[in-house]
Amino acid sequence: MTNDVLFQAFEDHFGAPPTHLSRAPGRVNLIGEHTDYNDLPVFPMALQKEVRIALRPRDNGRVVLHNVRSEFQTVEFEIEPAIPPFAKGSWGNYVKAPANELARRFAIWRGFVGVVASDLPVASGLSSSSALVNAVGLALANINEVSTEVREFSGIMADAEHYVGTRGGGMDQAISLGARNRCAARITFNPLRIRHVTVPDDWCFVVADTGIRAEKSGAAQAAYNMRRKECEEALRLVSAHVATANITEKLHTSYPSLVKVLDPETLVEVATDVLDGNLLRRFRHVVTEAARVEEAVDRVFAADVIGFGALMDRSHASLSRDFQVSSYELDDLVAVAREGGAAGARLTGAGFGGCIVALADRWTVGSVLETLVSEFYERRHIADRIDDRLFVAVPSRGASFTEIGD
Ligand code: NG1
């Protein structure tokens, strides 16, 4: 939907033109999965697909947000210091989330009327939820004159999203707010740092959707939160063991401090003394994935498409075998992308359904796309609306809030 059509939809609904536009992109994570909430690095980039809200501020605290998609009911609520949530699973909770967090921290009182449109597939691991949280948060912060810099604001938005019940990390909010055109970003946490890395012109990251939704306000939420708990428990046991067995001189109680002093092979070896089963698997994924992120960033600087692809393959194997967040369809998409000539492929985002990302150079990308269409989408009879399911990601700029006519 173009801006003109969105603005017209606003006027049709509210009887006057909108005055402002708030927009926030989704993202594709290139590598570094389930590392952000362990304070370890990630390497995502923002997409050309985004959430856009045309709006008009009000002189009272009511928020009314109409969705251009009729299956999503219009959301209405009052800004107050503790905003009660809608029923679990309602999309409106992603609108209330930033309002609740901003009202808890700042004296905000102005609401808005708005119309929202998005070309991001929902529950597909491309962060449509954080894009919505950011777009609403940015609108409320601006119309209430709350001024924070990007990194602080992205921390606030990450806390805000916990309102829906998922204990996510801060990757999605940070990249959606802080991204630059033509760049991916190596992001580290606590404190948040964003290092922009230009993506080589002839690298194509293909995003392909399984069509299986991974509803993080629904079934995937418990599985996601469970992984986070397991990572915390594994860390607690390993750091206690490292301390009592005098493996290092100092105490290391966080993942970043452990991976700084011990390489992944040593860490996994040490971990086998105190962990087994799922805890050992989760720990092994997390520490090896962190090392893959660092290597992957180096591969970009070296313009080494084959090396980057190999790291993506290893990441997928680890997510599938050790973190156990892949699925039959995700594994199949990865295999088909590789068959089509991709240098590497992996599930992206939380997993449990959603999308994969595959890397190909400019000369091979056509064959990767064709193979995905014929061997995955056509075989499953889901080749309709193919541009929504399968596209080449364009590294795009982060969120913005502008006055219409600016
Ligand atoms: P998606 O793909 O949006 O479900 C989730 C978390 C991220 C990160 C990834 C896994 C939220 C908002 N996002 O992303 O923080 O942990 O999973 O790497 O919870």
Question: Which key terms come to mind for this protein?
Answer:
alpha+beta, six-stranded mixed sheet, four-stranded antiparallel sheet, 43% helix, globular, binds 2-acetamido-2-deoxy-1-O-phosphono-alpha-D-galactopyranose
Question: What report would you give on this structure?
Answer:
The chain is an alpha+beta fold and 406 residues long. Helices cover 43% and strands 20% of the residues. It is built from 13 helices and 12 strands. The strands form 3 sheets. The protein has a 6-stranded mixed sheet with strand order 4-3-5-2-1-12, sandwiched between helices. The longest helix has 26 residues, at 219-244. The mean pLDDT is 95. It binds 2-acetamido-2-deoxy-1-O-phosphono-alpha-D-galactopyranose. 2-acetamido-2-deoxy-1-O-phosphono-alpha-D-galactopyranose (NG1) binds next to helix 3 and helix 5. Residues 33-34, 36-37, 125, 127, 129-130, 161, 166, 168-169, 171-172, 216, 349-350 line the site of 2-acetamido-2-deoxy-1-O-phosphono-alpha-D-galactopyranose (NG1).
Outline the secondary-structure elements.
Elements: H1 3-14, E1 20-31, E2 43-57, E3 62-67, E4 75-78, H2 93-105, E5 112-118, H3 128-143, H4 150-161, H5 171-178, E6 183-188, E7 193-198, E8 203-209, H6 219-244, H7 255-261, H8 264-271, H9 277-301, H10 305-321, H11 328-339, E9 344-347, E10 355-361, H12 365-377, H13 386-389, E11 390-393, E12 400-403
Parallel strand pairs: 3-5
Antiparallel strand pairs: 1-2, 1-12, 2-5, 3-4, 6-7, 8-10, 8-11, 9-10
Helix pairs in contact: 2-3, 2-4, 3-4, 3-5, 4-5, 6-9, 8-9, 9-10, 11-12
Bound molecules: 2-acetamido-2-deoxy-1-O-phosphono-alpha-D-galactopyranose (NG1).
